[in-house]
Amino acid sequence: MRKHILIISAVFPPEQVTSAFLNYDLARELAKKYDVTVLRPYPTRPIGAKFDSAEVNDSTFKTLLIDSYTHPESQLIGRFKEAIDFSKKSVAYVKEHHNEIDFIYNDGWQLFGLYIIAKACVKYGIPYIVPIQDIYPECLLTKGSYPGFIKKTILTLLQPLDKYYQKNAERVRTISDEMADYMSSKRKLPRDKYLVVNNWQNDEDFMSLPNPAKNNQITFAYVGSINVHANVDLMIKAFAAAKIPDSQFRIYGGGNQKEQCQELVEELGLNNVTFGFVSRSEIPSVQAEADVLVLALPEGNGNLCLPSKLTSYMLSGKPVLASVDQDSSTKRILEGEGCGKTVVPDGKEALVNGFKYFAELTSEEREKMGKNSRDYAMKHLTREVNLQKVVSTIKEILTKE
Known about the structure:
By secondary structure, the chain is α/β, with parallel strands linked by helices. The chain folds into 2 domains: 4-200 and 382-400, Rossmann fold, CATH 3.40.50.2000; 203-380, 3-Layer(aba) Sandwich (Rossmann fold). It is 43% helix and 16% strand. The protein has 13 helices and 13 strands. The chain has helices spanning 18-30, 76-97, 112-124, 148-167, 177-186, 232-242, 258-268, 283-288, 308-315, 329-336, 348-360, 363-380, 383-400; strands spanning 4-9, 35-41, 62-66, 103-107, 128-131, 171-174, 194-196, 218-223, 247-252, 273-276, 292-296, 320-323, 340-343. The chain has a 7-stranded parallel beta sheet, with helices on both faces. A 6-stranded parallel beta sheet has the order 10-9-8-11-12-13, with helices on both faces. Helix 9 links the parallel strand 11 (292-296) and strand 12.
């Protein structure tokens, strides 16, 4: 009799979010050997995207739509309510079917959501893996200035929830060695509990990339969510201040900061900064049209993980300008492998210098960096390499059980 795996996924296609794609790939792969059911809420990410339905159109596994509260806006109370409601309704399903479930992939909403689902797993004796893209509650404190006693209070109240679902998981899937080392140390859990697996992309989407037209203009581009953690406003201000002749900056994506960024461009009088929205299938081609791809993470956001968009950027065979923590895996890879340049986070002048640095390189130098990016990504960041790490671990857990 085939074993039954339940994937609880806070985001899932048609949402164009990294975790949605990863969980879809995981469901398809696991369905080759197991019965797989996916629980998901109605699609809402990224904010601004329009969804006619939540249909996945894949018959290899079962997808169940959970009628739960959704709150795509970046507001703490609304997000907490969303996390709790989806997890409670997912737990109701687990309660009804726990005798049939052999394993749970617990990828609900962070903190409260993961905690509630983990408690149900413990109650019913169901083994689970919890994947972690961002470290909570620490990342709640990276944007904005909080007094020391406020930070200490938040960490004291919320860290035990995070430790609970990590401690009781069979494995905790992280996205960098730096993240695994940090959590093992801070949560006082064995390092071998952490499974390091890089995020991957649809590799085949990047197999036939168009060759951009040769001209004297240099094109910078950002592709991703335009939200408070993306620092797109900082990129715009730095690009404007750099005043690079024959240059343009293309910004693709949606999010709750997009309108403010558009207003900033208008306020600065920039006619060489444009906005667009692309589907997942269009991402490789628009990235291939750029000369340099840009990302900027607030201090404390990029020191422990490899940003998912960096994988996409590097598969596109482009050099990367990254405003990130200087003790990060992003810096280690980009500069160690000759794939780009990093500057300190949250610094406008540093990012200005980054834009100028790439403008002063020859096209041949930028192309060499792009080739290095592509070579590294194909060796370390593909679906073929990383998906099997997760699948193999789940198979080991099920065999042990």
